[in-house]
Design goal:
- The chain has helices at residues 3-11, 17-24, 31-39, 51-59, 61-78, 92-95, 111-119, 134-149, 162-171, 194-202, 220-224, 226-231, 247-257, 271-279, 290-295, and strands at residues 80-84, 103-107, 123-127, 153-156, 177-181, 206-209, 236-239, 261-265, 285-288.
- Helix content is 45%, strand content 13%.
- Helix 1 packs across helix 5 (61-78).
- With 310 residues, the protein is an alpha/beta fold.
- The protein starts with a helix and ends in a 15-residue tail after the last helix.
- The protein has 15 helices and nine strands.
- The model is unreliable at 301-310 (pLDDT under 50).
- The protein folds into two domains: 3-78; 92-299, Rossmann fold, CATH 3.40.50.450.
- It has a nine-stranded mixed beta sheet with strand order 1-2-6-5-4-3-7-8-9, sandwiched between helices.
């Protein structure tokens, strides 16, 4: 199918990521082909709950096509690439995740930044709490700075606290790049990080969302984007700090489902609390220092928990 067809389908009620993936693996060539075969009973859409409603929506196809063209024009104007999973440009590490979005929107400031994002081999995610003490912020900043110098793409969520420190540290070095995962490329939340978002784009980084521009913000989107943050990582997710009930723990759970390895700071004021919380979800993680990051000793296969605290 063409990009337009995938986008039209994604806008229709009841058509989620799993259904789009199912259609992608079929022999359906375009949306008219889908419409004809579905209405004639020659093609069954798996996992589609309300078939009668979908039939009605197919009669209203022009509405979704008009919305689709409006979104495509907005994206062209704002430098946002639309990538679907049938495109070679879609990140392979994210595509491998079962719950990955079928379509992502990638804001960039030129072909070089988009190409870098698509081809970058070493991606590492750093996330954590919004309200953190100084030593956590400083550790995160230095960790991201070291990783960027070693040509890593540092991925985070452009929130306050840990996310902000991670992006700022990565921007300190121009060897690597930094990627922000947010609910909507067109709306920076919180707005106080707008300048930081601009800095990321100006440094050939990218900003990614699974929601099209001007889609109404919903706080649930902040949780939904967490699976993308961990999914884009090549292997490792660093949790600088977390609380028991938080979006960071959602990221931890997603990372474990995606077979990513969890790393946590070893010697910070909040390290014991963070380790205790993560231990409730997995015993397979590694506590590391900035020296470990500098020496990249975390790349070893030994990922068993160390008894650091009595």
């Amino acid at each position: 199918m063409k990009k337009k067809d995938w986008l039209v389908l994604s806008l229709m009620p009841g058509i989620g990521n799993s259904i789009l993936k199912s259609i992608c693996s079929s022999s359906i060539e375009n949306i008219e082909d889908l419409k004809t075969n579905f209405l004639n009973g020659k093609y069954e859409i798996k996992r589609l709950r309300d078939k009668e409603n979908f039939k009605k929506e197919l009669d209203n196809l022009q509405f979704y096509e008009d919305l689709c063209f409006s979104i495509i024009e907005q994206c062209k104007e704002k430098g946002i690439a639309i990538l679907s999973q049938d495109m070679t440009e879609y990140p392979e590490t994210l595509k491998e995740c079962n719950d990955s979005p079928f379509i992502i929107y990638v804001k960039h400031k030129g072909k070089n930044s988009l190409k870098s994002f698509q081809t970058w081999e070493n991606n590492i995610t750093i996330v954590g709490s919004r309200d953190v003490p100084d030593d956590v912020s400083e550790w995160t900043y230095e960790a991201a700075k070291i990783l960027s110098k070693k040509y890593y793409n540092v991925i985070s969520g452009l929130a306050l606290g840990v996310d902000k420190s991670a992006h700022q540290g990565a921007l300190e070095s121009r060897n690597g790049m930094t990627t922000a995962i947010i609910p909507n490329c067109d709306e920076i939340v919180p707005s106080s990080n707008t300048k930081l978002a601009d800095s990321i784009l100006n440094a050939d980084g990218v900003i990614i969302s699974e929601n099209y521009p001007q889609k109404k913000f919903d706080p649930k989107q902040l949780v939904q984007r967490n699976r993308i943050q961990s999914g884009l990582s090549s292997k490792f997710v660093i949790i600088s700090q977390c609380s028991a009930k938080s979006g960071t723990i959602v990221t931890v759970k997603n990372a474990l489902k995606q077979n990513k390895s969890i790393l946590v700071p070893k010697d910070l004021t909040t390290s014991k609390t963070t380790i205790d919380i993560i231990s409730e979800h997995t015993k397979s993680f590694k506590a590391i220092t900035l020296e470990d990051i500098s020496r990249q000793s975390f790349l070893t296969d030994d990922n068993k928990q160390k008894e650091l605290f009595s």
